[in-house]
Amino acid sequence: MEGDVTEIRRILIAADKFKGSLTAVEVAQHVTTGLRRAVPGVGVEALPVADGGDGTVDAAVAAGFERRELEVTGPLGEPVTAAFALRGTTAVVEMAEASGLRLLPDGVFAALTATTHGSGELIGAALDAGARTIVFGVGGSATTDGGAGMLSALGARFLDAEGAPVAAGGGPLRTLASADLSGLDPRLAETEIVLAGDVDNPLLGPKGAPAVYGPQKGACEQDVAELDAALTHYVDVLARTLGPAAAEAAEIPGAGGAGGLGYGALVGLGASFRPGIEVLLEVLGFADALERADLVITGEGSLDAQTLHGKAPVGVARAARAKGVEVIAVCGRLALGPGELGAVGIRRAYALSRLEPDPAVSMAQAGPLLERVGESIAHDFLPPGRR
After folding, report:
1. DSSP letter assigned to residue 105
2. Of 90, 296, 98, 114, which is closest to residue 210 (Cα–Cα)?
3. Which of 18-22, 197-201, 278-282, 377-381 is least confident?
4. Can you give the pTM of this predicted structure?
5. How confident is the model over 365-375, as a mean pLDDT?
6. Quick one: pLDDT at residue 310?
7. Nearest to residue 13, comparing CAs of 219, 296, 256?
8. CA 295 to chain centre
9. Between 3.40.50.1000, 3.90.1510.10, 3.40.50.300, 3.30.565.10, what CATH number should domain 56-277 receive?
């Protein structure tokens, strides 16, 4: 028997989405189905999690936040329906809802012109709804505009040499002549804005937003160089306007998050940066749920080297290990060895690829395969008398 069979009475499922296959809510549902198929009466609590990228609002809604929808400006300038989550005076805003790569038509990219304007509109809507703490998930973006679009939506003005507004996107920032942030929504000064992300890149240079993330948004080598130069100019103009702290902020880890939206939020909104999974676990009430659990099941689509750099499963495992609760993981694909898993507090991982080696079939059948994994977990970790 794999687990300590005398101890496990209640299981907490705190997994992220399986990107391209299942939402975090669906992952929990399928694992629960498998567990209860093997042990009908087993106690299971689901707390879907996210690290600031796609699915962050859905995770908040699953934890009891109210979903609010509105029409905002999408990354290509067209209207899109986006959502944020609200509970009391705390809002969870996910930039990917308004400015995400997933909103682009298949095969269409706009590396130089995609805008974060809609993300600013979401923040404005959260303020209108009474939010005074905003957890701002920054990940999954289609944009590399340094957050200029977001700031414009909130009242900032970015003008060219003729006094006309600079066009949308990161590329046109090369024409920026002046920046005026005095018109920013005054409620921002009374609001705590926490950037929740899983990257620590600066804004500029070989590890910056254009160089590292531009290619996945359709940027060719020339586009990357153009974006880096345009954002460098953007920082210079903001430093002339706001002082040297604006230039220093470009080097802060996380400033390059979401195509530099992290930088815009740091400089223009007075935001602070924290690892996404850390702040989301607090907001979602993970500590209370953990108190009720004897075993935690976490996971995401691929457990690999990127997982070790602040992704949701590692955040869950570390928090659980600190409380002495054992953690196992589910995933579509496993590229970490037992030693790497153990180092972050994951005792064992169950991969769908071991049941179905064809990646396309595994993704298409992820739900039923996860149910089989749930049965295996029940067999390995629950007492014989419970089965």
Report:
1. P
2. 114
3. 197-201
4. 0.90
5. 98
6. 78
7. 296
8. 25
9. 3.90.1510.10
